[in-house]
Amino acid sequence: MYRILLAVLLMLLLPAGPAARAEEAVPQSVAELQLSFAPLVKRSAPAVVNVYAQRLQEQRSNSLFQDPFFRRFFGDGGSMGGARKRVQNSLGSGVLVDPSGLIVTNHHVIGTDSDIKVVLADRREFDAKVLLADERTDLAVLKIEVPDEDLPALTLGDSDALEVGDLVLAIGNPFGVGQTVTSGIVSALARTRIGVTDYQFFIQTDAAINPGNSGGALVNVKGELIGINTAIFSRGGGSIGIGFAIPSNMVKTVVATAESGGQAIRRPWIGAEVQDVTSDIASSLGMARPEGALIVSLHPDSPLGVAGLKRGDIILAVEGKPVESAQELGYRVATTSIGAATIIEYLRKGERRETQVTMIAAPETVARSETTIEGKNPFAGAVVANLSPAVADEVDLPADATGVVVVRLEDGPAARFVKRGDVIVEVNRQKVGSVEDLTSALSGDEGFWRIEINRGGRSIKIAIGG
To answer: How confident is the model at residue 12 (pLDDT cuts 50, 70, 90)?
Structure first.
């Protein structure tokens, strides 16, 4: 026993071997003692801006007066239910990605119909124009005009090159206190169940991110922009070390569209319904582990079907990048481009194969006939359209969905009964197969309405009036 204790003491007291000494060496110079992120911050921080969005929001003291029926009698300015305009402010951050004044931020920072101002790191203030706002990715591209000056801008890095454990900096304006820099590491990659955007594939970091950081920069040690800070996981509103950023490779697609003058993003479409491969599915197929996206169905015009893929195939990779889930497949497809010849690797009956798929935009097989419903009926204020693969893709419905869908809601009673993405099935026992069918069914001045809608695969019947 005493010999063992003596051996342990000698190991602790005697000098370590050469390899250990190299790993545990103390700083040998003043420069090593002063290692700091300061040079990186000096290069990166000037490209991060504050974004202020201001918009007028109508409020009514009584919800009854939102109904057009009551407005006919009391008007919009009555004391009982008159509309009041309230200024709503939002604060966030943004990142200059081009010296000409191109800025990327979050869609939720600017909202819609906003008066937007951008404040640079040197405190100069400019009015900003929205070039593109994409709710599905939660990204927006702004433009400010600064004549005869190249503004500091960050280079978009390759977010696919990130690894868990990489050092990162988060730069933004948390709580409106002013530009703030926090440091941390990449905690995880490919987070897909966050519920913030349609394309869920986030970089997770433990760098402190708080309200106001939205739209700010996540920067790697090379000073490249590798993510746009977007959301936090929090029970109390403050940072607990779980923040999420939209990868720069998704940002690139949005910026490219804005630079080309596009008002909306045309995304590649694969025309397939897919699902995650569960452990049970993997076991039944003889797979070593669950991975990939299982093809459940294919639209007749699907480019996957044209390339030879079939129902039951499992997509494992896109352009050599592994696919672990259905949501990851959506992200990989969204970061390709229309017309690109893309290599898809898939599994069929235990055999790994690959094929080349030419990416296409979702086809508009029937005219959408987008129409705003008016009059005294439950759908007044709803904007509806005929379903096609293109429209279905926009409202996140299966590619083979048919009928009439609510694409958005404007001012009117419809917001009380329907949501974006609802498919209108029947009105007063009249089947609705087209926008024309719907407008015909709503043409009468009915006092009682029976409507049926399909919401997320569930039939909902509503009786109104009487």
So the answer is: very low
Domain span holding position 218? 159-259
Spatial separation of the C-alpha atoms in residues 169 and 234, rounded to whole Å = 20
- Among 12-16, 88-92, 154-158, name the one with the lowest average pLDDT: 12-16
Q: Is the same domain home to 333 and 417?
A: no
Domain check: are 399 and 455 in the same one?
Answer: yes
Known active-site residue 299: no
Residue range 292-341, pLDDT digits in tens: 999 999 999 999 999 999 999 999 999 999 999 888 898 899 889 899 99
φ, ψ for residue 23, nearest 5 deg:
-75, -30
CB 268 within 8 A of CB 199: no
Neighbours of 21 (CB within 10 A): 11
Indicate which residue of 114, 159, 187, 214 is catalytic. 214
Catalytic residue list contains 108: yes
14 within some domain: no
- Pick from 419, 416, 438, 418: which is nearest to 427 by CA? 438
The residue from 108, 159, 248, 299 that is catalytic is 108
Q: How far is residue 82 from each of residues 64, 70, 194, 370, 413, measured CA to CA in Å?
A: 11, 11, 39, 31, 17
Q: Are residues 404 and 439 in the same domain?
A: yes
Residue tagged active-site, from 134, 138, 313, 393: 138
> Rounded to the nearest 5°, which phi and psi values hold at 172?
-170, -160
24 belongs to a structural domain: no
Show which of 143, 168, 183 is a domain's final residue: 143
**For 101-139, how does the pLDDT look when each residue is reduced to its tens digit (9 = 90+)?**
999 999 988 877 678 999 999 989 999 999 999 888 889
280 is catalytic: no
